[in-house]
Amino acid sequence: MRTTAIGLALAIAVAFGYVETFTKGIDRLPERPCAGAVDRDLAARALPSARTAEERGRLEQGLHGFTFRCHVRTSDDSSLVGDAETSDADVRSWHRHFLPKSGEEGAIEVSSGDVRGLSLAPDSATVFVPCAPPRSELPAHALVVDATTIGTTRAQGDELRQIVVDFAYQLARHAYRVGECQAPRSFPDSLPRLSEGRVMGESPN
Question: Which of 59, 67, 61 shows the shortest CA–CA distance to 35?
Answer without folding.
Answer: 59
